[in-house]
């Protein structure tokens, strides 16, 4: 593999990376509920990783999971902004329908959060829920082992990536996560998509029964 580059890997060349972020409510005794989602697609074109289609939407949370003042302080989203917005099931079904040209992989910072929400809504977004998520936290632990923490703000500071003023909204967080992801692909040790998935992949829970049936 000496002298090879990740961009030379056929699987990597053919994959679209879908960077995703949720903001949500965390009702006591219940699973998190999304109120804000954003996606940015990244793919290799003319030898360079380039951004493509984007998606962003607010969602009205269910009655048991209202937006709290603490949530507003964190995200800048107000209850008034969510009035009249469609529920998560509608939004995620619409987002799922945009993924019509596989292969693709999801990318998220701290993948269990995004993967958990997608699994909870797997009936509405079966493609998303069954797709592996590359965790940029896991990537960062390999590329920047010297850092005391691999939270997003620490990584932005370390790499001199400007922190968005509306941090903790889904689209700004997706944009900086996409920048971080591309930077780590350049600096990291990976020479194939398979190696990257082994180190940073978070398997989709919704896909496991299918995989177990194929490989008993």
Question: What is the first-to-last residue Cα distance?
Answer: 32 Å
- The counted number of beta strands is 6
Given as residue ranges, the uncertain stretches (5+ residues, pLDDT < 50) are 210-216
User: What's the tally of helices?
Assistant: 11
- Overall mean pLDDT stands at 93
Instruction: Please provide the ordered H/E string of secondary-structure elements.
Output: HEEEHHHEHHEHHHHEH
Strand content: 15-25%
Helix content: 40-55%
What structural class do you assign from the helix and strand content? alpha/beta
Question: How does the SSE layout of this entry go?
Answer:
Blueprint (H helix, E strand, L loop, with lengths): L9 H5 L1 E10 L7 E13 L2 E11 L10 H7 L3 H4 L5 H10 L6 E5 L2 H10 L5 H4 L3 E3 H8 L8 H7 L11 H18 L5 H8 E2 L5 H7 L2
Parallel strand pairs: 1-4, 4-5
Antiparallel strand pairs: 1-2, 2-3, 5-6
Could you characterize what this model shows?
By secondary structure, the chain is of the alpha/beta class. A six-stranded mixed beta sheet has the order 3-2-1-4-5-6, with helices on both faces. A hairpin with a 2-residue loop joins strand 2 and strand 3. Helix 7 packs parallel to helix 9. The longest helix has 18 residues. The protein is globular. The C terminus is likely disordered.
Summarize the structure.
The protein has 216 residues and is α/β, with parallel strands linked by helices.
